[in-house]
């Protein structure tokens, strides 16, 4: 696969909700700062971030790729949950790009061909001064890596544990996304959603999308009675 083929940064559209502006950092502000400045001359070459499902790993990797593209850099997002069942040929020639973001690393750990390909890819990226972000559900030391050389490479740069958002942070996320959509989200409605809705943030934001559509369709503002009706609660 040629470098020219790899220049599309994402397998999804450039949506507002995968930008840094659409991410409420909470206790993760330091990580976001490092990601935003990774392409600077003084930026960290290798960043590893880990956290539970729904913690924002994918959002941050896609946001980094989008921002790199906006700066005229060549970036690639590789979601291994979608691509890990293929042979690791996609890791060839990545050093021709400026930023690589590898998501769902745990998907290929323990598979010899993938681990060897990742090890050699990391070496090429280091030599080419290409920036690399890796995301996984577990820390580098907690991954059951079979290849010792790969295990050592995973500890090269900075490692960040994505901290869960507090309830107040989750409220701020709801307000932020509502504002980006042009929605009027009263505080009492936001708090009702927080306490009645799902704990997983992605599911909560999906409810917000449903409410936006229902509100526009019915030409009604968001109130707790309307939310109960729209969501059948």
From TrEMBL:
Residues 167-231 form the Hda lid domain. InterPro entries: DnaA_dom, Hda, Hda_lid, P-loop_NTPase. It holds the Pfam family Hda_lid. One of its GO terms (biological process) is negative regulation of DNA-templated DNA replication initiation. SUPFAM superfamilies: P-loop containing nucleoside triphosphate hydrolases. Residues 18-159 form the Chromosomal replication initiator protein DnaA ATPAse domain. PANTHER family: CHROMOSOMAL REPLICATION INITIATOR PROTEIN DNAA, DNAA REGULATORY INACTIVATOR HDA. This is DnaA regulatory inactivator Hda. It comes from Kushneria phyllosphaerae.
């Amino acid at each position: 696969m040629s470098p020219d083929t790899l220049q599309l940064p994402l397998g999804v559209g450039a949506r507002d909700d995968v930008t840094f502006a659409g991410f409420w950092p909470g206790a993760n502000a330091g990580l976001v700062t490092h990601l935003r400045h990774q392409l600077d001359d003084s930026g960290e070459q290798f960043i590893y971030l880990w956290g539970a499902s729904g913690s924002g790993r994918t959002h941050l990797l896609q946001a980094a790729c989008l921002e790199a593209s906006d700066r005229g850099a060549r970036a690639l997002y590789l979601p291994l949950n979608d691509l890990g069942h293929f042979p690791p040929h996609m890791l060839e020639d990545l050093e021709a790009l400026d930023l690589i973001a590898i998501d769902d690393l745990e998907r290929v750990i323990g598979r010899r061909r993938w681990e060897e390909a990742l090890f050699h890819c990391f070496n090429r990226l280091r030599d080419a001064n290409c920036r690399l972000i890796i995301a996984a559900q577990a820390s580098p030391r907690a991954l059951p890596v079979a290849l010792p050389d790969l295990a050592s490479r995973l500890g090269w740069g900075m490692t960040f544990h994505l901290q869960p958002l507090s309830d107040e942070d989750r409220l701020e996320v709801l307000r932020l996304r509502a504002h980006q959509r042009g929605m009027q989200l009263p505080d009492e409605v936001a708090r009702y959603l927080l306490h009645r809705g799902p704990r997983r943030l992605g599911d909560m934001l999906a409810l917000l999308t449903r409410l936006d559509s229902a509100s526009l369709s019915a030409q009604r503002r968001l109130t707790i009675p309307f939310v109960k009706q729209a969501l059948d609660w």
